[in-house]
C-alpha cells in the first residue's frame, strides 16, 4: 500500500536520504535509526512537505511523489509531528473539527447559511468516537496552551485519526510521555491498527517499538541498513553497531 | 460632537481598509501596500457602472464586487505566487510595485480629475445630539458595522472561517488538517480586495474619487491596523474608528491642513510606545 522506491534528497551538499527503498503493508510498522538518520525527512517526503530529488512514493497504487501535503492528506495519509503541531487559536475539539475539513468537503454556501445539519451531526459523532478512543473527551473545550502535554499528544493522534486515513505516520509518538501514558498510547495505537489502519512510526523507545511493531526498517546516514521483524533487526550486526548497541535502549 | 460624527464616518472607511490589511497579514504575514488602490478601484468602478454605463445601483455594486474579487485573486495568483524567492521583503516590495502600477492604470483609464459618484440614498441631514450627519454617511457607518459582523461570524463559526484562523495560527498544522493553504491565501486577497472596493464604493458619493486617493487610504488604513494591533480583527475595526475620531477632533481644533499628519503621528506613537497595538497579541515563535 505504501511503497518507496529509490528515494534520494539532498540539502545543499548534504545527502539526507540515499536510494531509500521499502514497502509497508498492514499493521504497525516502525522506522528506527540514530538522530540525523533521515527518519523525519522521509516522513516529510511521504507526506509531501519535501519533494525528493529522485525516486517515487506510491500509495494505494497512486504516485504521490509530487503531490501537495493537503492532497496527500485527502488521499488517506495523515500524520503527527515530533513537536506538537496543534492550532493554538481554536479549542482542541475544533482542532479535530478542522481535521475533517477536507474529507467532508462542506458546501461553502450551506456552511455560511448553517444548512449543513446532517453533516454537522455526522462530524460531531465522529469527533465523539475518536475522542473516546483516545481518552481525551474531558479536555476538548480547552485550547492547546492549557492542556497537559500527554493529552496534547493524544489529541494530535486523534486529529490524525479523524479523517478516516488508510495510513498514519507517527513521528515519535511516545517522546516525552511517562510510562503510564506510553502504556495507554500503546493500547490506543493497537486499537487503531485493529481497525485496519496502517501505522508507520518513528520512535526511539525500543521497548515501545518491540511491543507494537511487526515490521521495522532501520535507517542510518540516510540509507536503509536493515529491515525485518524487531527480533531480526535486534540481531542485525550493522544495526547494533550503528544504533542499538548491545542492550535495548 | 460634530467631529465625532464625521470621525466615525471616515473611521468606518479606515476600519474596512484596516480589516483588509489584517486578513492578508493573518494568512500570509504580508502587508499589502496595494490595499489603498483597491479602495480607489472600487470607487472608480462604481463611477463607471453607474455614471458611464447607467446601470442601476444593484448591478453596479454586483459588477464592482465581482470584478474586485477577481482582481484580488489575480493579484495573489499571478503576481505573488510566482515570485521566485518568497521572502517577506520581496513580496511586500511586489505589493508596493503593484500599487504604483494600479495607480498608473487608474490614471490612464479614468484620468486625473476627481470623479463624482451619485448618492445611493436620498440626501438628507439627520440631526443628532450636538451635530448632524448626512444619510450617505449613515450608509457608510451601517455598511461598515454590518460587514464587520458578517465577517466576524464567518471567521468564528464557519468551516472556511476556521480554516482562515488555522492558517493564521499554524500553516503546517493547517496543511495536515487537509486545508489548502494556497487557496486560503488566494481567498484572503480576494476578500481584502472586496473590502477595499466596498470601502471605496460606499465613500465615493461623499469624497469623490481621484486616482491618487489610494496612497492616503492605504496609509491611514495601515495606521488604523497598527493602532488596533496588526492581525486583530476587532483591533482593526476599533483602530479605524479611533483614528477617524482623533483625526476629526484635531481637524476641528487645528487648521485642517494638519489633519492627515495625525494618522502618522499616531502610527509613530504606537510604534514607539506599544508596537503590538491596542488589541494585538504577541506571538510566540518556536526557535
From TrEMBL, chain A:
Q: Which Gene3D superfamilies match?
A: P-loop containing nucleotide triphosphate hydrolases
**Quick one: a GO cellular component term?**
plasma membrane
Which GO MF terms does the UniProt record name? ATP binding; ATP hydrolysis activity
- Protein name stated in the entry: ABC transporter ATP-binding protein
The record's annotation in InterPro entries points to:
AAA+_ATPase, ABC_AA/LPS_Transport, ABC_transporter-like_ATP-bd, BCA_ABC_TP_C, P-loop_NTPase
A UniProt-annotated Pfam family: ABC_tran
Please give the start and end residues of each transmembrane region.
Answer: none
CDD domains for the chain: ABC_Mj1267_LivG_branched
Q: Which organism is it from?
A: Calditerrivibrio nitroreducens
Q: Which residues form the ABC transporter domain?
A: 2-246
Record has Signal as a keyword: no
**Protein keywords:** ATP-binding, Nucleotide-binding, Transport
Signal peptide region: none
UniProtKB/TrEMBL annotation, chain B:
**Does the keyword Disulfide bond feature in the UniProt annotation?**
no
What the entry lists under Pfam families is as follows: BPD_transp_2
InterPro entries xref list:
ABC_transp_permease (IPR001851), BCAA_transport_permease (IPR052157)
Q: Where do the TM regions start and end?
A: 12-33, 53-75, 87-110, 130-155, 189-211, 231-254, 261-280
- A biological-process GO annotation: amino acid transport
Its annotated compartments are: Cell membrane
A single MF term (Gene Ontology): transmembrane transporter activity
Membrane topology according to the record: Multi-pass membrane protein
- Entry keyword set: Amino-acid transport, Cell membrane, Membrane, Transmembrane, Transmembrane helix, Transport
Question: What Gene Ontology terms describe where this protein resides (cellular component)?
Answer: plasma membrane
Q: Describe the family membership recorded for this protein in Swiss-Prot or TrEMBL.
A: Belongs to the binding-protein-dependent transport system permease family. LivHM subfamily.
Protein name (record): Branched-chain amino acid ABC transporter permease
Organism per entry: Calditerrivibrio nitroreducens
